[in-house]
Amino acid sequence: MVSEGAAVRSTRTLRAESALRTLAATSAPDRSRRVLEQALVFANAAFAGVYVPGATGEVLSLSESAGVPRTLYGVRDSYRLAGRSPAADARRTGRAVWLGPEELAKRADSRRMPAGNMSLAALPLRGPEGGVLLAVTESPVGFDSEDRACLELIAEAVACPAAAEVTHGEELPPDAFSLATDSGRVEVGDALLELFGLSRSGFDGRVETLLALTVPEDLPSLMSVVEADHMFSGERELEFRVLQPAGPPRWVRLRGRLLPGGEGRPARLVGTVADVSTLRPGVTDAARVQRLAAALATAGTVHDVSQAVVAALREPLRADRIALAELENDRLVVTALAPPEPEAWPELWRLQWRTEWPDAPVRAMPTLAAALREGRARIWPAGTGLEPALAGVGPGGLAALPLTAEGRMAGVCLIGWDAPHDFTPDERALLTAAAGLAGQALVRARAFDAEHELVGMLQRTLLPRRLPGLPGAKAVARYLPATAGLEVGGDWYDVIPLADNHAALVIGDVQGHNAGAATLMGQMRTALRAYATEGHPPDVVVSHANRLLLEMETDRFATCTYVDVDMEQGTAWCVRAGHLPPVLRHPDGRIEIVEAEGGPPLGVLDQADFPMTPLRLRPGTVIALTTDGLVESAGKDIDEGLEQFGHDLVGADPAHLGLVADALLGDARRNDDIALLLMRYDGMAVRPLRESWTVWRVPEAVRHARRFTRRTLRSWGVSDIDVPLLVVSELVTNALVHTGGQVRLDLTLVNGRLRIAVADNSPRTPVKPTGIGWEATGGRGILLVEAVSEAWGAVPVGGGKQVWCEVLIGS
């Protein structure tokens, strides 16, 4: 008689055979990847990869993989065929290699692998290439007989790809690219150019041109693929976003592999870039997390939290069942079931759980109890042997998300599928993020008063703890929460020191009075600060913030006023986005409500203009920025409130800004939260000396830059110029050799401190080498700059970067 476990395993093998036959009949471009993913579904593998011989025939290189990142298990990108790795052994002997935790611990490369119940399998592949299928599992029993049978079926079905090579200069397929690792020059097909919105005549062949058209948040991961220092043998896949002239960014998928060079040819990264916008949901996983965060922030009860989690996860994951339960001692108190019908759930649940599913002991489901003790998300693919109470929830796949917060277990969320479900990396990331958010929301909902205190603390944390010191000016700020109710709003202020003795004054207000508004306020404050420090002009800073808020796909909008003050010249530029204008108190006591033309609130219009209005400041001028909570009330409109605000400012003594701020808030009605920012412009006692030079790309460019530096420093009365000339030579040379486009040299002298800055159009920042051999011909420039300067660094500037250093000099 066949046991129940054996019957389940036999069924799993039959299902694997059926799935592989179906995939074999398709001609999809990702068929190999989908075949490999069956190891995760049917063989209980956490990682599976295909290794093929490289061009030299000396190594096995990773060409395709599925599952969690290989680095978590110490799996390499390549293995030497002459080595003693499991992959090499399977390739040489033609027989499968099965290693459990004890066998792995005895091998030489076990130090790369994590300790624990990890097992590894290496199976030779059929075909002329002679590749290897490598699989890893965390199952305590390793790969059992049924797992091994499924892996053998998958090894027979895997198509072992040949190491294709692209010859420099030959015509590429429409969606392909070929990147030279030594020069950064890239050849691309016509379809790829169309994805980036470029024409063949308008493309300069530089990889930096393509990188500049990607979403900034995706740039670090993309640079890890295309930079020579990070390239590796084997195939790499990455999804990123490309900016569009109008509308949200377009999702594209890069698949590529590194081909080694030889005989005078550089190594090249070759591959394809395809449009996957139609394959992805209309809302990104990041946007789903943001929406879930906003929904949970306003959820006042456990029921509200549960419904928000179900709404955020069930449809995007195409799940058939979701259950959410609180954990109280050793019992689960179910708070949401989707679908709610009892017949949709396992019979054991209906028999043992009382009316309306109030509670059940955790010990009734030992597998779930073990997951809760571990405190991390667990995923069981179709066919996993689980107790009936869990197997019936997700026969095609089950995910258990422990909901933790504040160091303790708050509950659990079960998500199940009827049909076999492949868990993608994006889904795993979404589940992990949702679990953290839901756990925190459950804790807040249990103690409603504690939630308000937590949100209030969040708002205080998001606002600046102290304002920075400014050259030639002093700023103070105040924030008062509303006294009507305990909820907080989205008012914020900020003072941002900028380069060249500029400073940005920002004040704003996010729609709403809850945790969602406070969270969005923190995001907008951070975004404006980031765009400002990149060196953008005020209108561009506000335009970028507007586009970012639109891409967040939130229903909220925000208003703000942004003032960029030049401390040296006593001038400023003001940009308004649906917010109150600045109020100036001139040194003679005269009040001016600035008639600044304004744009719409942020997050309302995609194509919006934010005009700039010039301001002239004399020493003693006070700039006052506030939110509508101070100037608007039920019996007074904004215009009347601004007039009264200016009148109160007339009699203030600008020498004591803190007292001025307290007086302005003294009689304020507290129906709304209030933010107030004051800055007194005093003027700079010592103005820096500045000169700039555009470095032309000519053979004698460095000599010209040195001559400009020598002439400038002598005109400033500086005699000790050897060190500045050395620094200029190194920084300008690096910019000319490693970047393209315009290069600018800026010199600034103040109080015996010379700042030398070189700006270029490349986002790549210089990296200090960790060691240089005596035979090296380069790499010493940054080391020399660091050795002779007081400080050095690199900052992003307008799509490129600026490398700077400061040198102490004597006149």
From TrEMBL:
Keywords associated with the record: Hydrolase
Recorded superkingdom: Bacteria
CDD domains assigned to the protein according to its UniProt record, in alphabetical order: HATPase_RsbW-like (cd16936), PAS (cd00130)
SUPFAM superfamilies: ATPase domain of HSP90 chaperone/DNA topoisomerase II/histidine kinase, GAF domain-like, PP2C-like, PYP-like sensor domain (PAS domain)
Record's keyword annotation contains rRNA-binding: no
Ranges of residues in domain PAC: 236-288
Name assigned to this protein: SpoIIE family protein phosphatase
